[in-house]
Amino acid sequence: MSLRLRTTALALGAVVALALTGCATTSNDAPASEGASADGAFPVVIEHAFGETEIPAEPERVATWGWGSTEAALALGVVPVAIGQQTYGADADGVLPWVAEKLEELGEPTPTVLTDDGETPPYEEFVEADPDVILAPFSGITEEQYELLSEIAPVVAYEGEAWTTPWQDVVRTVGTALGHADEADAVLADLDAQIAAKAEEHPELEGKTIAAVWDVAGTFYVYKAADARVEFLFGLGLENAPAVDELANGESSFYYTLSYEELDKLESDIVLSYHDTAEEAAAFLTSAPIGAIPAVARGAVAQVVGTELIAAVSPPTALSLTYGLDELVDALAIAASK
Hints:
By secondary structure, the chain is an alpha/beta fold. The chain has helices at 5-8, 69-75, 97-106, 123-129, 143-150, 167-178, 181-201, 228-233, 242-246, 278-286, 294-298, 307-312, 321-336, and strands at residues 33-34, 44-48, 51-55, 62-64, 82-84, 112-114, 133-135, 155-156, 209-216, 219-223, 239-240, 255-257, 270-275, 301-305. The protein has two domains: 44-191, Nitrogenase molybdenum iron protein domain (Rossmann fold, 3-Layer(aba) Sandwich); 202-337, Nitrogenase molybdenum iron protein domain (Rossmann fold, 3-Layer(aba) Sandwich), CATH 3.40.50.1980. Strands 9, 10, 11, 12, 13 and 14 form a six-stranded mixed β-sheet that branches. A three-stranded antiparallel β-sheet has the order 1-2-3, covered by helices on one side. Strands 4-7-8 form a three-stranded parallel β-sheet. A hairpin with a 2-residue loop joins strand 2 (44-48) and strand 3. The longest helix has 21 residues, at 181-201. Mean pLDDT is 89; it is low at 1-38. Residues 1-32 form the signal peptide.
């Protein structure tokens, strides 16, 4: 997987450049914008980390980059002309399964897939796609990359830190940029209702503290509350474990690494761990250093296993949430009983 998804699946988990809220801690405010009081009202001005972007008219040729914007556009019935390649949980063409399913449902061919090397956007491929907007509200583009992409088309970047935009805000931002704000609200209302229904089915999750982690290649990652995959869990009634904040070292805005010698300090009611394979998941549970984690010692561990499932919930998107929600919640409920 690329560095972006692993650090954001670690994302993604960044998917590490890269490995998903109603969610109780997710903002219900629409993305900062001006000039769009109703669907289809243009020009639209969207504020983000690098300033603001004006979209003069309803986009007809949409390009997506990063995570979640492809799904948001498709959920709104807009088929991009170009989409960012996914290297984690995707098929050989870099297309995620729920994206492929939605395209088939819409009767549309796969858009041009833009090469993602985990570092630099493929500028020439963007030029060839000839978009009139580039949607990257959950991405890791730098200010320099933003400026270069802006020479091709208006770019909608993230509002705060790279790779931390709540998944709901990704949908809202895309809806605003495409002139489909009302439709975006409807999509979110439906998904929020599904999350709320799951929370109601599992009251045992309410108030339980959680630490989301990934142990890979000799490095132990802990995800902060700012990470979209963790923030999503709060909608199920879970709370961020205080120890997650107390042990943070400022390494990143959404994750940090923890030495194996300190794992006994990672107190939480539940540990949620991510694993590419069943073998890795089994090894996690039998590892002596991992066993020092209090929740692991009690057996209060929920595991997300397999690249597709990890991608579906790390963080969820407008199309992937229902793809992995049942399995994730079932695992959390079992862990909460320990």
